[in-house]
Amino acid sequence: MNVLSVHNLAKIGREQPLFTEVSFGLNEGEKAALIGKNGSGKSTLLSIIAGKLHSDEGTVVINKTLEEGRTASYLPQNPIFNPEDTIMDYIFGNDNVKLNTIKKYELTCQKMSEFVNSIPKQFQQEFENLTQEMDNRNLWNYESSIKGILTTLGITNLQAKLKTLSGGMIKKVALAQVLVEDTPLLLLDEPTNHLDIATIKYLEEYLVSTERTVLMVTHDRYFLDSVCTNIFELARGKIKFYQGNYSTYLEKKEIESQIEENTDRRIESVLRTERDWLRRGPCARGTKAKARIDNINRMINREKFTKETGFTFETKERRLGGKVLELKNISKSFDGNCVISNFSYIFNKGQKIGIYGNNGSGKSTLLNIITDKIKADSGEIDLGVNTHIAYYQQNPIFENTKLTVLEYIKETAEVITLNNGKTYSAGQLLEQFDFKGKIQYSPVESLSGGERKRLYLVRLLIANPNFLILDEPTNDFDIFTMSILESFLDGFSGCLLVVSHDRYFMDKVADTLFVMEGNGEISGFVGKCSEYIQFLEEKTREEKLLQKQLAEKEEKQKSLEPTERKPSKKRNFKEQKEFEQLEEDIFTMEDRKSELESLLSDASTDFSKIEEYNREYKEICNSLENKYPRWEELAELLPY
């Protein structure tokens, strides 16, 4: 069944059309990715499909024949929210009838739980009505699946206000909102940004297994390979379809590039002959001659093949001294929560270290301490005299956004000398990073978020650091920019310390890990990020197997154990009578307790009796707590 139909979409960009004549469709269950360079219009196209932006031409049709007119769920790159809203307000704050019913039911249960004795009749009636509606709409399984998603994402306190959450948790809440919605189409714009690797792994598994149709924009190449069955490439204002995952797309692009190059070469060969004919000044009054001239003009004015050559960027190296950087017994806590505990490390030239850990484990805190953005509670940082640190932060700050792109780069260097001796002017270098034409003379404030971060990266690298610290450098970058950065880091001879959720990027640039354990401890792992994830998975499997084996062994030992020897001491007559009475009382009370539990959990019970049942239930529980210890004491003795 067709879920999405896009026909002849067009959108005008800053200087020219972003895209034109974009047409494609998605069927039920398809998983597709939209890829392309930053500025090609990927996020704009996704926003138009989601109904958040208007196109200049064309139509978008999402199948609305499903139950209750459900259409699409949209996750933007940067979620918009009211800081005063609670997590529950955000996740359940839409017009979905099912979600609204579940929200009302959960809130009513919460209010009823606040009453110790008598529950007001208004809540009793509301609870009864909502329970009936949950039954009628068959929502109990749906409610259970929602709770499963929230628990897996670590969202437990639904009453927490959004303003109190970290950026990573905000992204998890926004992700939870689109996952819990019962819609046939998921539109995800950079869903892995700001998520830790464990959550990305969960999202990957969810998208692979879900029956929902998915269209996403992402630069995470492992994620693309694992999830996507189709690729749509947005380039030069047009969209092109490739069947298969990202690796298959790369193979097809390479073949396609070779074909285009050979075709272009043949056309140029034909044109040499045709240009000679034109220079001889043929008479163009004949029909055949006119057609030949028109054909020559079409070949001359065609869109010529341009090979993606890539760009190798290596700045002139700055020498590192014998001492690079030493951390001595660094500790840091926030509100009594230990994030880093007594951490020491000596960095050496050429080390490339990735930092692995869940959100909130202290990755960015460690980087901020090293770069003196925040102070450690204790410990020392000894920086070598020749060590020049460049720190790429997640959200770079631009002091003067009125500067043009070119002026911003020229503040650092007007001419850049690469490691191979080749020189670039600031403008030429910007072109290599895809800042071409008029955009160089545009103010920084007019750039998109991704473009600003790319510009900030260029300025950082041309400052010629010998110790690079990168905090989530891949957020908002396209694969083209990431390839340049990976190439640069591959040839970088200084020290590198990097935090990234992108497993492919981490595997490419780091060969050792600092593992943030989450309790303040930082351990080391020699190997790549994917190897550590595999190690964790194998460790988990081994632990589960060991637990199973221990449980089976314990059960087997119990079955082989001889009957326990009875104590030699006997109850006296009085104790025997007491023991028999206690047994009778306990059996009677346990039966009544079970009966009361059934009455209290029965939604059809007359609520006027709940108070009476509740009081009796508490009295029985208190009495049993007093009787059981004495019964256990007497049970240890032999009968009278």
Give a verbal description of the structure.
By secondary structure, the protein is α/β, with parallel strands linked by helices. It folds into six domains: 1-71 and 184-244, 3-Layer(aba) Sandwich (Rossmann fold); 81-182, no CATH class; 255-300, no CATH class; 325-526, 3-Layer(aba) Sandwich (Rossmann fold), CATH 3.40.50; 528-561; 573-635. 44% of the residues lie in helices and 19% in strands. The protein has helices spanning 42-49, 87-91, 97-113, 121-136, 140-152, 167-180, 197-209, 221-227, 246-279, 287-300, 363-370, 405-410, 426-432, 449-462, 479-490, 503-509, 529-560, 573-601, 610-635; strands spanning 2-12, 17-27, 31-35, 57-62, 72-75, 185-189, 213-217, 230-235, 238-243, 325-334, 337-347, 352-356, 378-383, 389-392, 415-417, 423-425, 467-471, 495-499, 512-516, 522-526. The strands form five sheets. A six-stranded mixed beta sheet has the order 5-6-7-3-8-9, with helices on both faces. The longest helix has 34 residues, at 246-279.
